[in-house]
Amino acid sequence: MDFISPEDRAFKKTLVALFLGSFIMYADLYSTQPVIPVMAKQFHVSPAAASLTLSFATGALAIFLFIVSFTSGMFDRKKIMALALVSSAFLSFIVGFIHSLPLLIAVRFVQGALLAGFPSIAMAYINEEFHKSCLGYVIGIYVSGNSVGGLAGRLIVGILSDKFSWNAAIGALGALSMAMSVIFILMLPKSRHFDPKKASLKRTTVGFIQNIKSPSLVLLYCLGFILMGSFVTVYNYIGIPLMAAPYHLSQTFVGFIFVIYLVGTVSSTWMGRIADHMDRSYVITICILLMAAGTVLTLSVPLVLKIIGLALLTFGFFGGHSVASSWVGLLANRREKAQASSLYLLFYYVGSSVIGSVGGIFLSYYGWLGIVSVIIGLLALGIVFSFSVRLARRHERTRRHGPRRLIGQH
Fold first, then answer.
1. What is the Cα–Cα distance from 382 to 143, expressed in whole angstroms?
2. Strands, E, within 205-298: which ranges?
3. How confident is residue 410, by pLDDT bands cut at 50, 70 and 90?
4. Which residue of 73, 114, 319, 340 pairs with 287 in a disulfide if CB–CB is 3.0 to 4.6 A?
């Protein structure tokens, strides 16, 4: 079977399309994050309440990813991804005309639900269409779209909200996302290694049971929960101390803080390459330690140290997520890759919603130290999970095939 490899003419074209899709999703999904402090003031609510505009979107995404895990094998990969991106772009545009917090939260919930059709399908597409030898690199490029999209979305919304309003800023982002969605549709090749006619509910159910009975996969799902929850919590609320004394930064300046996301573009690709040739447990542990060091640095008073801390956190997160998500694709059975990716992302976004919301409560009671304490505890658990994945995988293979030397099981 002809898998896409770096020597193929379609390689770069497909990478660009997947990068754009990833860009759109993360720009739209996290569009309200940089204006949480502004919305809290405008609607006269707490930062934790304003953060529900993000938590409900990521929560809906997680819920519907669970549904996608059962149905993804029944429909055309490209059509599902295209529908998710176009509908999300349209709803971002609609947000430009909403001036009610309950209605905004409801629309964001629907947007998150619709976006569920993109991430796990994209990962499955990558695992099915690309040659195994370049899988880590390709997913690294795809994840770099997360960081660039997250950066661009936050910059656009942050800057335009200062000059106009947060509504107009998100509406403009929606128009940009729609244009990029059209490019995505034109550039992405159709699946060559997937036949939706072969899918069935019975097979999907059996695959689901296999994916949740595998200890190694469940540990990776939990890693996604911890990585994403820790990362989002910091960025949800970092604007609050930065806009207060002694910094008094403007919304535009806080928006430019998200330029740090560019280091995620480097780390996701770099760590993805390293993981193709090195034990993934060690690579993920290094990434988690960088996240922990960066989180502690955000306690510093000098602004430059806070920014360095955010850079370390971001570098570690995107690298760790890139490696963990590609590891899921490698450990899952070929027929259950899309579902395994869906389950990983379900935990990933539940972490964003749950830890992101809980972090706001700790911020209210214990200040920034409360958030840092929660994240450090979670990251320590993440290191344990990382090394447990390899041990669990060895146990699974030994139980299945009997004691023998296991070669190349990263």
1. 20
2. none
3. very low
4. 319
pLDDT at 196 (0 to 100):
65
Report percent pLDDT > 90 for the chain.
Answer: 38
For the cut 70, the answer to whether the pLDDT of residue 407 exceeds it is no
- 38 Cβ contact list (under 8 Å, min separation 6): 161, 166, 251
Token pair belonging to 244: 């207060």
Going from the N-terminus, what domains does the chain have, and what CATH number goes with each? 10-187+207-401 (1.20.1250.20)
Q: What number is the average pLDDT over the span 366-391?
A: 93
Q: How far is CA 289 from CA 140, 272, 307, 352, 384, in A?
A: 19, 17, 17, 19, 12
Instruction: Please report where in the chains the tokens 């099915």 appear, as a residue.
Output: 128
Quote the CA–CA distance of 299 and 306 in Å, as a whole number.
Answer: 7
Dihedral sign computed on CA atoms, order 233, 236, 240, 243 = positive
Q: Degrees (nearest 5) of the Cα angle 56, 374, 253?
A: 65
Its sign, for the CA torsion 150, 155, 160, 161, is: positive
Are 234 and 355 in contact, with CB atoms under 8 Å apart?
Answer: no
**Helix, strand, coil share (%) of the chain residues, nearest 5:** 85, 0, 15
Of 34, 29, 95, 37, the residue nearest 65 (C-alpha): 29
C-alpha 388/C-alpha 220 separation (Å) is 9
The CA R_g of the chain, rounded to the nearest whole Å, is 20
Per residue in 60-85, pLDDT (tens digit) is 988 888 787 677 666 788 899 999 99
Q: 9 in helix, strand or coil?
A: coil
∠ CA 100-103-105, rounded to 5°: 105
pTM: 0.74
Query: Identity (one letter) of the amino acid at 32?
Result: T
Mean pLDDT of the chain: 85
